[in-house]
């Protein structure tokens, strides 16, 4: 098999140009889909028979929750690639992804809390899902903090990569223990508003938003990786040529 | 020159670390005193009523023990890093993961085990019935073992950093949360006269898993710190 495309992808100049070229191709569809999804979710979809209009927060909440976990997994894969093949660009991707993932996690928690207020009558429940999301936020913050406190770039990259891998091994353990913890403690006090077999009118905006958030993340990631490359390669001659061109 | 086998090397490192730890006995005593103090704070803050204290004793003892065990973690590799012993370990040709395992075991013996031994005394103070003490000690032995294994990864990652100790707790505590869940749960069940086998077995599984995987992560982190 021909691996040149892989090595080409790993070269900062090539990736820098490529990322610049595909950013609009991710950004504009993301923008369009967010507009469509929000219109579908906030205007077209019928109100829920139990929750009324409050359920509409799902169109932000669920895609964010999905992204928060997806980004951690993606970051761990990037970290592993960086550790195994010593590809610096992979570390740059992991570094660029962590704050975005943390922010999606934060958005998930805030929207969940806003949703919980009218539904459960409280801002916060020590519910299994919310708790594991909170722990996920702590894991992200730990990663960001570790990277921030190591001055040497190479060491910061590799240490964060090890931590990301340790985290990804622990995530399922944390997730399931938190899940059991809550079911052990008490029967779910939160009345499960068990997915009232969601109608298509409600579902399609959600799916659109899922895709839109993915694309949006792709765009943000490309911008941030370009930023990382600029910072890391600031003394490289190719960059000077690239910028003066 | 005679070749040192890895078992000999591990035994030597374990012994050496213990000798060093016992020469500086205050390092062993401090976490124990910390545990005792935190446990004393609870009746002062909440209620001197033994019946009420018994309800929360499992959680309190576990949280206090986790925090106490965190205290000594940053010293795990610090002196080795400072005086160059760590470089010699890397250059020795011995499998670094097993050396890390020996260091973790020594650290647990010097910091985790004293906490386990003193815990029944504090538990009685919180109104824990005598038949729950075995479960308490077992769960804490496994729990401090898990924390030493996970903490060794954190200690290796934060080696030689400014404000490494705060960062270390930030990294390690989320990973230790599952152990806390099942450990505190086991003690709670034992206090209420139930059979605590389930959570204890899960705790044991976590212990084996962390003991198996963490030395490799420690070895990777130590190599990175010395590059």
Overview of the structural elements:
The complex is a heterodimer of chains A (245) and B (227). Chain A has helices at residues 4-9, 12-44, 58-85, 88-120, 128-149, 153-185, 200-232, 237-244. Chain A is mostly helical. Chain A has one domain (22-244). In chain A, α2 runs antiparallel to α7 (200-232), α3 (58-85) packs across α6 (153-185) and α5 (128-149) runs antiparallel to α6. The radius of gyration of chain A is 21 Å and the shape is globular. Chain B has nine helices and no strands. Chain B has helices at 6-23, 25-45, 50-71, 78-83, 85-91, 96-125, 133-157, 164-191, 197-226. In chain B, α3 (50-71) runs antiparallel to α6, α3 (50-71) packs parallel to α7 and α6 crosses α7 (133-157). At the A-B interface, α5 and α6 of A face α8 and α9 of B.
Largest sheet of chain A: none
Global shape of chain B? elongated
The tally of beta strands of chain B, per DSSP, is 0
Instruction: Give the oligomeric state.
Output: heterodimer
Would you tell me the structural class of the helices and strands of chain A? mainly alpha
Which of globular, elongated, flat, extended, rod-shaped describes the shape of chain A? globular
Give the strand tally of chain A: 0
Q: Which structural category do the helix and sheet elements of chain B fall into?
A: mainly alpha
- The DSSP helix count of chain A reads 8
The helicity of chain B comes to: over 70%
Beta-strand content of chain A: under 5%
Order of helices and strands of chain A: HHHHHHHH
Give the N-to-C terminal Cα separation of chain A: 35 Å
